[in-house]
Backbone:
């Protein structure tokens, strides 16, 4: 199988991540922060070190504000459902995933919050100027998708961060597709909430995400047992314990810790390889007349296309018969397809990682050409 669905989840994990995961369910399979015996304390120290490492990698100021979640989606929900201003306004983009869009819909229906979805410019990008123009007197939050999970458009989160700071707005960045591919500097980009997926560019396990907070305090959306204030039925408001009700996965935490260290070491090298593969893939697709291309060569490993006159899932299923794994459909981002006019047929999406190579890309192009010939009447 030639795996090209890395936008969804990276299939191949570094050996250090696999080793750490195994250690987490053997040597450190204890409930951290819940007991005073030595093994539980050892587990707690590992979790604390993990928070420190995450802070260093993303240049965040406070390890107590590294909140472990089960996914990037949960992290986004916490960020958007904290600090709610009833009747307020939020600026976001048409590139957002449903984890943002559906939460915005919830806020609109329950708190009267309105929102503006900024479309891409003529270059297919979200311009900081368009974000600034969408701000109203009652705007209190910006929510920005760093890299589109559909077409790979990269937002200038540092410039948008300056706008957020100027207008004193809460700044939320969805880094599901960017963490592990691009260095993210929370402090210097003025990011208040960074939502992180562990299993994509960082090459960690599924089932863990992060909400990293900078100069802001979130509110819990899940209530229950923590390592503090067990005598009270009121949810504690200390951090991070009050945000992490329930038993956390030591295996996932240790694995993601190693994934972050591994990514930090190889990020520039891997990023350069993915950039080259992206440019090569796009060039190959541009040479096929029947291909409709929605991504440009600045996309970082996320490439969307269609074959003229055909549904995306039809093409993906045919590619599967040739041993390729990639995705069709709407990719949980309906507004992108609304903008490009592909709601009815979706897009074929290639998700590259540094584990892919030029031979695989060449084979994909030749296979697409074989498939296209089947559509031509004899």
Residues:
């Amino acid at each position: 199988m030639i795996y090209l669905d890395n936008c969804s989840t990276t299939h191949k994990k570094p050996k250090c991540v696999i080793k750490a995961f195994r250690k987490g369910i053997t040597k450190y399979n204890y409930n951290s922060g819940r007991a005073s015996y030595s093994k539980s304390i050892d587990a707690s120290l590992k979790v604390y070190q993990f928070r420190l490492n995450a802070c260093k990698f993303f240049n965040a100021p406070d390890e107590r504000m590294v909140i472990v979640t089960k996914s990037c989606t949960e992290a986004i929900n916490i960020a958007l459902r904290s600090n709610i201003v009833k009747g307020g306004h939020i600026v976001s983009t048409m590139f957002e995933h449903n984890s943002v869009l559906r939460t915005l819909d919830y806020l609109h229906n329950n708190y009267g919050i309105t929102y503006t979805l900024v479309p891409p410019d003529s270059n297919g990008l979200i311009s900081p100027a368009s974000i600034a123009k969408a701000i109203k007197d009652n705007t209190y939050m910006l929510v920005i998708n760093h890299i589109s999970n559909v077409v790979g458009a990269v937002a200038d989160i540092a410039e948008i961060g300056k706008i957020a700071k100027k207008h004193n707005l809460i700044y939320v960045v969805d880094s599901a597709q960017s963490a592990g591919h691009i260095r993210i500097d929370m402090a210097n980009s003025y990011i208040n909430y960074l939502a992180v997926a562990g299993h994509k560019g960082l090459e960690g396990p599924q089932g863990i995400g992060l909400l990293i907070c900078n100069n802001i305090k979130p509110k819990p959306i899940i209530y229950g047992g923590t390592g503090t204030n067990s005598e009270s039925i009121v949810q504690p408001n200390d951090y991070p314990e009050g945000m992490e009700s329930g038993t956390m996965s030591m295996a996932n935490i240790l694995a993601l810790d190693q994934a972050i260290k591994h990514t930090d070491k190889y990020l520039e090298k891997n990023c350069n390889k993915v950039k080259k593969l992206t440019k090569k893939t796009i060039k190959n697709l541009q040479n096929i007349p029947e291909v409709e291309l929605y991504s440009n060569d600045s996309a970082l490993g996320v490439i969307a296309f269609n074959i003229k006159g055909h549904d995306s899932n039809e093409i993906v299923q045919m590619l599967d018969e040739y041993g390729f794994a990639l995705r069709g459909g709407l990719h949980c981002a309906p507004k992108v397809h609304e903008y490009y006019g592909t709601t009815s047929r979706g897009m074929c999406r290639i998700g590259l990682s540094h584990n892919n190579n030029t031979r695989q890309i060449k084979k994909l192009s030749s296979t697409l050409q074989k498939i296209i010939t089947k559509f031509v009447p004899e």
User: Anything to note?
Assistant: The first strand starts at residue 2 and ends at 3.
